[in-house]
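Recap from last week: sequence in, structure out.
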Amino acid sequence: MNSEIRNLEPKAVWNKFADLNAVPRPSKKEERVIQFMKDFGTSLGLTTKIDKVGNVLIKKPATPGMEDRKTVVMQSHLDMVHQKNADTDFDFDTQGIEMYVDGDWVRAKGTTLGADNGLGVATIMAILESKDIQHPAIEALFTIDEETGMTGAMGLEGGWLEGDILLNLDTEEDDEIGVGCAGGIDVTAKRGYKEETVPEGKAGYTISITGLNGGHSGMDIHKGLGNANKIMNRLLFDGFENFGMRVSEIRGGSLRNAIPRESFAMVVVDEIQAEAFEFEIGELSKTIKKELAIVDPNLEIKVDKVALPNTIMDLGVQEGILKALYAAHNGVYTMSASIPDLVETSNNIAKVTIDHGEITIECLTRSSVESSKTDLVNKLRATFELTGCEVTTGGDYPGWAPNMNSSILKVLDELYQKLNGEKAHVAACHAGLECGILGQNYPEMDMISFGPTILGAHSPDERASISSAQKYWKFVLEILKEIPKR
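Predicted structure tokens:
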């Protein structure tokens, strides 16, 4: 199946992508892909180094005639988001991604594809391996753990790089040149609760939410996509208010940087209320599906009668947590006043786990304005602390402030128009890119971000455009030829 991918153009890129996708590389478990990249650099006879956190640096000298050009850092991250459909049997720790061609798209079978940021990695590998591509001196930087904390970029020491220009290959629209991004911070709310024995005369139910599109919690947050945790809480809140429904457990979402696509809950109601409860939840489900019909047409909400669970939540804690989850902000918080159509601040209620006497709610808050990020974090903290949760933050990383006077921006802007007959969209994005962090240790480095078109990143619907990859590859080759002289 992956042989079909290897025959796509540009073959140099797709072959390296297939090689890379054969290596398991979930975030925080990058040992195998780090070794893979080390072996790759060494096999080419190029200087290859690994720093103390696991970032890989491979250096390639300039091709003849390009020695007087500025040194370029080409940068992408090695890890990928590991998301799969509930009915897909797949182990990200041991299996390579199974890919196939669907028209103009490369997809994976029931899992994320890893084009974010695997196509960037593959591009750099193709250039390192090439014998006939014209380029200046290159420092190929492959960072680790971008998706769950950016600890690779954060751990990169000053002085490790010597380059003047950084090309970050992690943008997901081929007509966009990235000049800025949002920062982010993890917000986690926790508390315990007393488990109570289920009284007699109760009926047990499971509620399942599946079929949502999900997506990138930064790039897709403005699209109005359904959040499985918020939908589940709406159902549970209604069931509690109208029927005294009690919660036994909730498991929703999986990763902070992915809009949650699925949620599952086990609840109980009085047996005498069972029929009315089923009808009410069914009617509310129809309403929710109608609301999301355009953006999430495949949403499924199922209510199934099951054997009674052994325990339920303490009533007071349940009431408080359902209200807190209802009140907690999810989605766009503010839009940028300085850049049209740019989300400034947002929050993703990414994961809700209630089971065995413990409640954990995990969010990712993003903003390009530090004060606005703090404001939303405080709002979330206040919401969850009112119901007795302990709220902690971590993984704080800065945004990347746009530099509209960038010399490399001018090069890319002019080249894009020359190659495509129209101007590129120069923009900041609401995703987190490593440029802001790298810029702390390398403040004089001129940075830019671009890439091929990738849709549905961070979800099993992730797909990469074949025609866009061809367009992007030509752009990369021309950029390398036009790097300014020192």
